[in-house]
Design goal:
33% helix, single chain
């Protein structure tokens, strides 16, 4: 899935759940302050780390509920922070190494696998979808692999369909195949000619997963393990096939507003029916524990579980040229205009230009989980911010404090002075 938290720009489409699950970091980063550090204080210092920890706790206490922040400035001494609201400690004591559903960050892995096959000349970026998946995608003869990768295919999103909504919220226990999800995918409204306009759709990456499997004869999970996680030593990363978390391994607990609070949150954007809410145990503050909602439907679009350290290892390896030849890295970094993302969208990779510098990466979101993971242009520096809610950071105060945290972490990663640690609004 897609998902930069609602604390930033809202990608308003035809349904509330798409808004919350296709968020973006761009607006926060675009406003990153260039405030000067205090006398004798560098951008990376104990004082800066302490300010970042204060911002993390402030975000947790004002709606983010729990946050994991990991900043690697490339000096071998990453900063790791885990902060949470007091009541959430009854469910789980958050740690910086906890596993987390990284949602649409998975798209970068899927795109990397596709481009590896492009380098091996098994897949062509100008191959049509119809060539690989005959009869499966309407208009597939006019849609190319490149268009799937950069979201210019013209396909809508199955997240918007009433048929899928109960599964997304966990109210219905059902296993969806990628073929079923593609059959459920509507046209964009209004229809868009393939190759013309950026419009984010999880359906694009469901199709790419099927193309990968057909081209290689291996399952997507096998490809991820063989080509990405095992070579890079990502021992805490895998593609989820159901709602279960591995026994004996720590994982973060995710939360969303209950049905009444969710309806109020989205009032003015969309009028949700009274009974639309997330399945799970009730928790304090009109929240619901969503950790048991099955994410397996998101598959090649957003099904991976990982940790902050593991995913930064992947993204830095990718951006430093270890996973793709130079020609394919150039293709991956060739972006189309994507104002919703605060910049451009390449082939499974977002570029955001900020006052603190250019960052590359992706964002992700599933019920209870928001993630934002970026590197600098060389893959030397990286930053992760995990947030234990997705819809919950749409509320004004939560949005403001979460934005301040992301700005500060990103600027610190880039070696620039942090913005103010006193967000208002």
């Amino acid at each position: 899935m897609s998902a930069p938290p609602l604390s930033r720009r809202h990608r308003i489409r035809r349904a509330a759940l798409t808004i919350a699950l296709t968020t973006c970091l761009g607006a926060a980063l675009a406003n990153c302050s260039e405030a000067e550090p205090a006398a004798g204080q560098s951008a990376a210092s104990p004082a800066a780390d302490a300010r970042l920890a204060r911002l993390a706790q402030q975000a947790a206490d004002t709606g983010s509920l729990g946050v994991i922040v990991r900043v690697d400035s490339g000096d071998g001494k990453p900063v790791e922070i885990a902060k949470q609201a007091a009541w959430t400690k009854d469910d789980h004591r958050l740690a910086a190494g906890d596993r987390f559903r990284v949602g649409s960050n998975t798209k970068t892995v899927t795109a990397t696998l596709v481009l590896q096959q492009v380098a091996d000349k098994r897949i062509g970026l100008d191959d049509t979808v119809e060539k690989w998946l005959p009869g499966l995608v309407k208009g597939g003869e006019h849609i190319t692999v490149r268009m799937l990768l950069n979201h210019t295919s013209g396909l809508g999103d199955f997240l918007l369909t009433p048929r899928f909504l109960p599964s997304l919220t966990g109210q219905e226990q059902r296993t969806w195949t990628p073929q079923e999800l593609l059959a459920t995918t509507p046209e964009q409204d209004p229809p868009t000619e393939p190759g013309k306009t950026y419009s984010y759709s999880n359906a694009n990456y469901e199709a790419l997963g099927l193309i990968l499997e057909k081209a290689t004869g291996s399952s997507l999970a096998e490809l991820i393990e063989q080509k990405i996680t095992k070579p890079l030593g990502m021992k805490d990363s895998f593609l989820a096939t159901d709602a279960a978390w591995p026994a004996g391994k720590r994982h973060a607990t995710g939360y969303e507003p209950d049905a009444k609070r969710l309806k109020a949150l989205l009032s003015g954007t969309v009028d949700l029916p009274e009974d639309v809410g997330f399945a799970g145990p009730e928790r304090p503050g009109d929240n619901v524990d969503t950790a048991a909602i099955d994410p397996s439907w998101s598959w090649a679009a957003g099904g991976m579980v990982s940790t902050a350290q593991d995913w930064q290892r992947f993204l830095t390896a990718l951006m430093s040229g270890r996973l793709l030849p130079e020609a394919q890295m150039k293709q991956m970094r060739t972006t189309v205009d994507a104002p919703e993302e605060g910049g451009g969208y390449g082939l499974g990779l977002i570029k955001v230009d900020t006052p603190c510098g250019t960052v590359w990466g992706h964002t992700g979101g599933l019920p209870g989980y928001s993630s934002e993971i970026y590197t600098d242009a060389t893959g030397t520096r990286s930053v992760t911010v995990f947030t234990m809610t997705n819809f919950g950071i749409k509320e004004k105060k939560a949005a403001t404090t979460n934005k301040a945290l992301v700005e500060a972490a990103t600027c610190q990663m880039l070696g620039k002075p942090q913005p103010s640690d006193s967000p208002t609004g």
